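Page 37, top half.
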Amino acid sequence: MRAFRFSILFLLLAPTLFAQGTANAGSSSGSGESFDVVIVNGHIVDGTGSPWYSGQVGIRNGRIAAIGDLEGQPRRETIDAKGQVVAPGFIDMLGQSDLTILVDPRLPSKIYQGITTEITGEGDSAAPLNAAMIADFRDSYQHLGINPDWTTFREYFARLERQGMGINLASYVGATSVRRMVLGDADVQSTPAQLETMKAIVDQAMRDGAVGVSTALQYAPAPYAKTPELIALAGEAARYGGIYATHMRSEGDAEFAAIDEAVEIGRQAHIPVEIWHLKVAGKANWGHMQQVIDRINAARASGVDVSANTYAYTAWFNTFSAFIPPWAHDGGDRKLVERLKDPATRARIRADMLSTAGGWDNEWQEIPGPEAIEIAVVQNPELVPLEGKRLSDVAAM
């Protein structure tokens, strides 16, 4: 395979897109007003789907002011992009930078990849928060060195604006966060009054600037939510033109039922649906992607606005607790640890993980075994030497 000949020069600018600037293509922007920067000699790929074209890009006050022949136009700086592609930055439709942006506002891990806009908030979101949630997440905040001095999206976004930020950022309000605000981590169903409170929280989040409501239905306490609850929350986001985005209940054995649920939420809540990181997990399901796509296309043909983005990796990143069945998470992490310390309950958890009977999205059954698990991040300093090792290696040690 031939190597790609061009490197890419990404532009992180205010949301004036290349497509808007192309109206000036071929013109000389004869106002005579100086540009801050003019990029010359690059291959322009503007994101519209058109082939690359030659031209010069003039930037003024952080915006693309002109694209075309800007020869002779005054400017403070010229960037020679010979041999490079000049393109708008990529949009990461599901990032996880809502807290790390508070650690390093420049977000070099995104910028160096050419990602200039991120949408975040997968089930859990940076807001809303209450005192109990802040206490539960204390270890994570301490690990990152963050002081959670916000409880609402309005306060969170204000903090981002005060500190500055290296990318554009938008967030969904996570249905898991909303549920925790009202019901905690228990495996319970909301009363009508509690559901109204949850809807009001979504309403406030949307007015604060959230772009929709999201779910991550494999991970407790999210699996405890029934479809009507999700329809009610999605309906609140729909009133503000929001989106329902979902990590579905299953991406493995029960994936078709999970797609049907997502579609039904979209249909009843009158809201567009985005299915995140679409995949067919587990060796038993390999080869089913065409049927999955057909299922989504059939829903689109029936009038539901549903789309998906695919998962292009052979590995995923998650916490160890994701291997444990949902019933054992009832009541949150403290209850989970108590159950793991009890020999009889621990044996039941192990039996469920080893069972192929189904009934929940068993990620342990979707991997070859402990040799497929690499320890990536630990919060206990004493365990840092284990980072980068496989679980099978740790067991042998």
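Page 37, bottom half:
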Amino acid sequence: MNSDNIIKAILKINPNAKVGVEGTDINTCIFNWDSETTPISKADIQAQFPEVEFDMAMEDLRAKRNKLLADTDYLALSDNTMSAEMTTYRQALRDITNGLTTVADVEAVVFPTKPA
């Protein structure tokens, strides 16, 4: 985990938290809590790590998916007739995140093959 991920975990618990983190290891890092933010235990922060990792994996997956969709957007313009294969491909890309609940699910995703 890096300090950004530690902060993401904190914000999952308290979206309004104001804190600085020095270090990247949850066991040795130093927290600089704002006087208006109730400190959160390291154990509670650490318990959020799997969710933060899943969120990051989904962000990466969506970025790749969005790029593949953008690469074929020109085919969806009103002056083009999109083939059934391309329509199916684009729908498969849009549906690719459905039902994913773990990092392992995300890592197992196989992107559809773009039709010629």
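Margin note: Residues 3-47 form one domain.
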